[in-house]
Amino acid sequence: MAPTPESRAGDTAGSAGARTPGARAAGTRAAGSRRPARPRGEGQWAVGHREPLNANEQFKKDDDGLNVRRRIETIYAHTGFDSIDGNDLRGRMRWWGLYTQRKPGIDGGKTGVLEPHELDDKYFMLRVRIDGGALNVAQLRAVAEVSRTYARGTADITDRQNIQLHWVRIEDVPAIWEKLEAVGLSTTEACGDTPRVILGSPVAGIAEDEIIDGTPAIEEITRRYIGNPEFSNLPRKFKSAVSGSPLHDVVHEINDISFVGVVHPEHGPGFDLWVGGGLSTNPRLAERLGVWVPLQDVPEVWAGVIGIFRDYGYRRLRNRARLKFLMADWGPERFRQVLQDEYLHRELVDGPAPAEPDARWRDHLGVHRQKDGRYYVGAATRVGRTNADLLAKVADLAEAHGSDRIRTTVEQNLLVLDIPENRVDSLVAGLAELGLHAKPSPFRRGTMACTGIEFCKLAIVETKGRGGDLIDELERRLPDFDEPVTINLNGCPNACARIQVADIGLKGQLVMDADGNQVEGFQVHLGGALGLSAGFGRKVRGLKVTASELPDYVERLLRRYREERKDGERFAE
Ligand code: SF4
After folding, report:
1. Which residue in 9, 129, 404, 545 has a CA-CA distance of 20 to 30 Å to 98?
2. Distance of alpha carbon 280 from alpha carbon 287, whole angstroms
């Protein structure tokens, strides 16, 4: 239940306002010389700021994003792209996983210069949400079929366990929904200022070392709250994760909310609650609230935290609207107090912190025994790029080996679960024939790339092709390198491929080549990490590489690391 205005935790607008340029300027004026500027507030609903302060808030107030579905089905699918209302096209469509994609051939120099409509292709990217990364064979086949029929065979596995299709026409969207929903998949709130896909351990319920299976909580949150107007107008996106794996396999440090498996000394297995993480241009690691949450309470606590975000989140400026900014101002103690007092109306139990995993990779690749005696096989894609045929063949392979469960991972890879021991080698060989490797090189295993300029309107550089080429080059040049290393490529200053927490983070931008020409390249960030030593990579001042110099640069870096590192020292150290 939402709190009443009188019972609110207090307006942060005073403190937040003190940080605004206007308020700072007011503070420096001579006393009495002028009336102090009135803090503008941050647009928090909970303290009465209900009037939209920017165009995004306005279109959300005008009509809930979820309502666009009806217009797509009854109007736009029949009248075509050019008939779509502007606020629907670049705003509300996202509530159903649809983004306009970039017109081919527009180079990175035009990004941010051209008007959004000049960058628009008349096709869409469509994101299929895969909560917990959980797919069965029928679902994977349905995605493959939709991809083949309506998306020119495109299908990228994202680092949030989704699958993204491209080249989708508005005319085909209702038929796509019909096919996906027939097998229990959806695109509901896959994008937009909404609760996005809920990350989950890809080995939930099967791993021998599991602390607790978070699947029931993910299913219950999805059932109760996804597509529910109660949380369909948030200040910005809200990213969630639930995992009971001791490997910490859902990047809990950088979600808005994460439930991380722990064992309470008195109460047993449950979850440690983390809030307020996020990357992008102002990265911030999530903080623990210091509470232990039993499995059955996860949906209620999740609703409390997202309720705080909806009610107290900053809505004035888009670039200050993520939950991390509220957490930065409140701190975990106040956040916990508001959660308990105003949303849960009870005290939460104090709980322990999770232990640091000792594994060198968190990604579940390779062959592993399940607790029921069968096996799962994790195989690496090439920077998440797959296609309709490949996904259909994975579905066939899984089925032929007795499995009905496939999982996507936050490293853009795939797992096939429930394989009898005597079928493992055959599955591994079959996946390898498809280019999916259970024993990949560290480069294939550790390299991720965002969508980049091929389809993304914010991109400045190409990423998927470069990421794949970099893997090939490094495999050829450093065949004996066997240390874990993560190399993440972004096409712009956003952080879709998590560059700040990679060993080698590559932020796409235009750079000067040796001849003074502006070309595609990358700003280099080094030494980012997740885990107990989590931290953001250092931007190496002045270190920018052109795209063509990238393989030489990374090769030099890795050779130096191998020569100079002390025993057991990780790249980030
Ligand atoms: Fe697009 Fe930038 Fe995100 Fe890459 S990081 S997908 S270029 S917004």
Report:
1. 404
2. 17
Which residues contact residue 368 at a Cβ distance below 8 angstroms, ignoring those fewer than 6 apart? 203, 207, 208, 375, 376, 377, 378
How far apart are the CA of 455 and the centre of ligand 1, in A? 9
Question: Cβ-count burial of 32 within 10 angstroms (0-12 exposed, 13-18 middle, 19+ buried)?
Answer: exposed
- pLDDT of 530: 85
Q: Give the ligand 1 atom nearest the CA of 495.
A: 5
Q: What is the DSSP string of 339-384?
A: IIIIII-SPPEE-PPPPPP--S--S--EEEEBTTS-EEEEEB-BTT
Element at 309 (helix H, strand E): helix 298-312
For residue 53, the SS3 value is: coil
Q: Please work out whether the CB of residue 456 comes within 6 Å of at least one atom of ligand 1.
A: yes
How far CA 110 is from CA of 103, 495, 544, in Å, comes to 11, 20, 20
Q: Identify the pLDDT of residue 495.
A: 86
For ligand 1, whether the C-beta of 427 sits within 6 Å is: no
pLDDT band (50, 70, 90) for residue 117? confident
Q: Count of alpha carbons within 13 Å of 122, Cβ hemisphere only?
A: 9
